[in-house]
Amino acid sequence: SSELPGWRHIVESIVHLGVILLDLKIAPKYTTNVYAKATNFGREILLEAFKIHTIVRDEIINQIMYNIKGSQTHSYILLLGDIIKDSPHIFLTNSLGKVKEVTPYLNVLPLDASSA
User: Fold this and answer.
1) Of 16, 23, 60, residue with least CA distance to 38
2) Could you give the CA distance from residue 93 to residue 88 in angstroms, rounded to a whole number?
3) What's the pLDDT tens digit per position in 85-116?
4) 35: nearest Cα among 84, 68, 83, 74
5) pTM tops 0.70
6) Which of 50, 79, 53 is CA-nearest to residue 64?
7) pLDDT tens, 32-75?
8) Is 109 exposed, middle or buried (0-12, 13-18, 19+ CB in 10 A)?
9) Neighbours of 86 (CB within 10 A)
10) For 9, which DSSP code?
11) Please, which residues have CB within 8 angstroms of residue 67's CB and are 6 or more apart in sequence?
């Protein structure tokens, strides 16, 4: 099982990789296609980790909330939408309260981020 103590550091490292990919800043010489693939892969990693591993759900939601309050909103709003769509029961039982904390920030997001 992935909940065994020996797996914790592996799962946490995978989540860290997903966050790095979502936060990625691509140099201008690379195409936006590379950026899109990297951020999509990061979102997939975090979505699957959220669905499968209870030990990292709080960390993933905390990353989403922190980044929605900051400047990296678009990818994290997409991730939040993916989590709500793919795992509504897990989300409602574990994370709804934390999302309520960030709703005031959603009203002041730039239009392109808030329409994600």
Assistant:
1) 23
2) 9
3) 999 998 888 777 777 776 666 665 555 544 44
4) 74
5) yes
6) 79
7) 788 888 889 999 999 999 999 988 999 999 898 888 777 667 88
8) middle
9) 13
10) H
11) 22, 23, 73, 75, 76
